[in-house]
Structure to design on (128 residues):
């Protein structure tokens, strides 16, 4: 997961320990909206200002396919593949904690991401 694939503007990887003790490798990618890929086309159709991918390795319940994150004017949306089940509470928690860190680290490339104030859309909930 450490090589920068074509069309990716930034890639950061984190090794985390989930609450159940499982080690997970999570990669966040900032993608280029101008690229001719199915994910960039999807992001443009959704009127995203920026978008990227999240890949998780390690947990048995990790999604098989990358999660697409989309930046909208007032929120971030996550889209899973139709083939993947919903994210577990532990994986939602990890994404909630590490996505703002990723945005801060890529701020030189995408300053609008660092300015976002991320919070759950439902009180006392994680990303859903």
């Amino acid at each position: 997961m450490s090589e920068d694939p074509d069309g990716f503007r930034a890639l950061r990887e984190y090794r985390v320990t989930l609450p159940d003790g499982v080690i997970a490798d999570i990669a966040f990618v900032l993608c280029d909206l101008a690229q001719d890929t199915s994910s960039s086309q999807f992001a443009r159709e959704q009127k995203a200002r920026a978008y990227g991918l999240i890949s998780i390795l390690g947990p048995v319940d990790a999604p098989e396919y990358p999660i697409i994150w989309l930046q909208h004017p007032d929120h971030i949306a996550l889209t899973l593949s139709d083939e993947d089940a919903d994210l577990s509470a532990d994986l939602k928690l990890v994404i909630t904690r590490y996505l703002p860190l990723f945005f801060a680290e890529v701020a030189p490339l995408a300053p609008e991401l660092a300015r976002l104030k991320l919070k759950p859309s439902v009180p006392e909930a994680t990303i859903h």
